[in-house]
Design goal:
By secondary structure, this protein is α+β, with helices and mostly antiparallel strands. The chain is built from eleven helices and 13 strands. The chain has three domains: 98 residues, no CATH class; 65 residues, no CATH class; 143 residues, no CATH class. The longest helix is centred in the last third of the chain and has 19 residues.
């Protein structure tokens, strides 16, 4: 778009801006905040240059970014290639009008808790129990993105001043995609070619206060001398165990439990869920590659404690019915 604008070929620039890849909410949902601002400015600039009825549509391209002060749209305008004095004055006047809009308390609640939540492409670090509170300009539409391992990415649009309650969908195919990507990438990791004894004695990586990353799962996969990963996720209100079979490339068992008042903590429930999921896996895959519980040697577990996420390696040779951490 920039090259077409400078050519100048404003009609072609406008046509290029209609691409779904340059949709402002789409870019913000992906965390591409600067790209969203640049796209909005170029879309508006091309319309403004075409004059006539097109100029009336330029503000619609600018509002989604100007109503979000933290995107620094005016700073991007001053640093960018759009130097036409008339257009700069046009954007400045619109920005002055929108900056005066009221700040409205806005709230998002994501279930289950433990998800990483981004507002307009920027992660919110101060959410409590899956609930995020913030201010948004009247008339704005906020882009909410939530991500958590084993769940489909959630993207929603919320109007300023509203409360959005959203449930994430646990989907095994998303777990399979994410684990497969981690397993595929493990060969590039520095520990991929280590001897098994080095892997067994290595310090387990910890990712404080966040869901397991693909790197963490890849580390677990690299340590895994068997072909199975148990992913145990512990949160304040939920606990779950997922069994991923690296030979079959799919999730073969899942157990989840919602934690209510008076129930055990998730960190206490998780071992039972893991054992139940492993028993289900054993029943369902009785004709599969293993014949005993000796696959525990080097067995990798990705688990989330109440205060964060840790990768554990189970080093026992024989499974004795307990959960070893």
């Amino acid at each position: 778009m920039e090259s077409l604008y400078l050519a100048p070929d404003f009609m072609a620039c406008h046509a290029a801006g209609l691409s779904p890849d340059l949709d402002i909410p789409f870019l913000l949902a992906r965390g591409e905040r600067r790209a969203a601002v640049r796209a909005a400015l170029l879309k508006a600039a091309c319309l403004w240059k075409m004059q006539g009825k097109f100029i009336d549509r330029a503000p619609d391209q600018l509002r989604p970014v100007l109503l979000k002060p933290d995107l620094d749209t005016m700073g991007e305008l001053s640093r960018g290639p759009l130097k036409d004095r008339g257009f700069v004055d046009f954007v400045t006047a619109l920005n002055k009008e929108l900056v005066a809009a009221k700040d409205l308390p806005t709230e998002v609640a994501i279930k289950p808790d433990g998800a990483s939540v981004a507002i307009n492409g920027r992660e919110k670090k101060d959410c409590t129990g899956g609930r995020c509170r913030f201010l948004a300009k009247e008339g704005d539409e906020v882009i909410v993105t939530a991500q958590r391992f084993g769940y489909a990415t959630l993207v929603r649009t919320l109007r300023a001043g509203e409360v959005g309650d959203y449930n994430m969908d646990a989907v095994d195919r998303e777990t399979e995609r994410q684990v497969a990507a981690a397993v595929h990438a493990r060969n590039a990791a520095p520990y991929a070619n280590c001897a098994s004894t080095q892997l067994a004695n290595a310090t387990a990586p910890t990712i404080s206060g966040s869901p397991p990353t693909l790197d963490a799962i890849g580390a677990a996969a690299a340590r895994n001398l068997g072909r199975v990963l148990v992913l145990v996720d512990v949160r304040k209100q939920t606990a779950s165990a997922i069994i991923y079979d690296d030979t079959l490339h799919r999730v073969v068992a899942r157990r989840e439990e919602t934690l209510g008042p008076g129930s055990r903590r998730g960190i206490d429930v998780a071992p039972d869920l893991a054992v139940d999921a492993l028993r289900e896996w054993r029943r369902e895959t009785a004709t599969h590659w293993y014949k005993s519980w000796k696959f525990w040697a080097g067995f990798a577990v990705v688990a989330a404690a109440a205060t964060g996420t840790t990768v554990y390696v189970l080093k026992e040779i024989d499974y004795d019915g307990g959960f070893i951490q």
